[in-house]
Design a protein that fits this description.
Oligomer: single chain
CATH topology of the domain at 3-102: Rossmann fold
Structural class: alpha+beta
Number of helices: 11
Strand order of the largest sheet: 3-2-1-4
Number of strands: 21
Radius of gyration: 21 Å
Largest sheet: 4 strands, parallel
Bound molecules: adenosine-5'-triphosphate, magnesium ion
Length: 410
Amino acid sequence: MERVAIILPSETYRAKAFVEAARDLGVQLTVVSEKRQLLLSEADFLLVDLTSPMQAAAEIVERHSATPFAAIIPVDDQGVLIAAYAAHDLGLAHNHPAAVATTREKAMLRRALRDKVPQPPFVVVERSADAAEVAAGLKMPLVIKPLSLAASQGVIRVDTPQEAPAAVARIRRILACTDRNPNEPLLFERFVPGDEVAVEGVLVGGALKILAVLDKPDPLDGPYFEESIYVTPSRHHPEVLAEVARVTQLAIDAIGLTEGPVHAELRIDGSFVRLIELAARPIGGMCGEALQFGLLGTSLETMLLRAALGMRIPEIRPYHPASGVMMLPTPTSGTFRGVSGGRDALAVDGITKLTVSVPVGDQVEAWPEGNRYLGFLFATGQTPAEVENALRTAFVLLTIEIDERPTESA
Ligand SMILES: Nc1ncnc2c1ncn2[C@@H]1O[C@H](COP(=O)(O)OP(=O)(O)OP(=O)(O)O)[C@@H](O)[C@H]1O
Ligand SMILES: [Mg+2]
């Protein structure tokens, strides 16, 4: 029986889905993680320090001599470099480590795409620069963001150059609260108006197979960019979707990604499609659960395992005519007290599941300081409009309870 190593930080929501996918495909799994996960008590574990990619990769290579791996799959950004190094040493299909490193740092990504892929004009701004002065030389509005964070944490829109210093100071405070370098340069880029879509795909030998395109029907105009609803299939015109696919593949080629999951975010700005972001991992959080394929409702994780093992990927047809997910917003920072109204929300036609993913009593942060969604609401239906409507109707029935913390002045 073949064995696959999956790199699964203990914080990930998708552990169970991968275990089930492996069981369905009859492959054995080694979970590479920084600690044992209770949910996966029967799994074979390899404990490594996920923050040291070279060292973690070396340990995977060592374990390979006892239990050989047919593939190594990262499930999130933390694992992509480890997987690339280990697979390289073992001669397995893999992304070049430099290519995945590029996707992990926003300035490197922008530079790699420059002049090759439509994207917002950008400037990388050093700590020592005068933010208002730099912004005054750029076309407004701008989006200012840190290079190393994710999940829209620290991403702020500014409409005038005068607002830039406060946004920069706020981003630096956010960086200082993480393990990142608080003095890292920041990215100033032109705000791209329009609808946003996400592309979920898998690469085999550099060729992109799109598994799903998801619309984000809530306007993401800022000033902060907390995600909310994703619905698939996309309602955009097939010509627009062809351009979305073309731009995504251009970006993949420019960066040099060749294998495994990809997740891209693009904006449709009139007749232009511009790339906002490209990552060598599947869609984040529990959102992947909104995607099921074929006649049997095959999971995204099964599709990714199949691709990694060189198995044929069955025809990509969604299992449900339409499906979607809503990430529960964090309206204010404070102590999370729970979500009520779940029973009513679940009774709404089309709603299939509500998961609250943060323990009651935890401190939660609103965006842009925040990076953790409180939970996920899922729906299926005959059309994307029906799914969107179900999510909105159900959401109104929920009450998110947070004991508000007095805000520090920004
Ligand atoms: N130039 C831009 N114009 C318009 N909106 C933007 C722009 N840059 C970012 N955004 C918005 O902010 C969101 C987050 O930005 P981005 O994807 O660059 O960072 P991130 O989500 O923190 O990183 P990651 O996607 O790697 O987790 C985007 O999905 C988009 O809605
Ligand atoms: Mg993003």
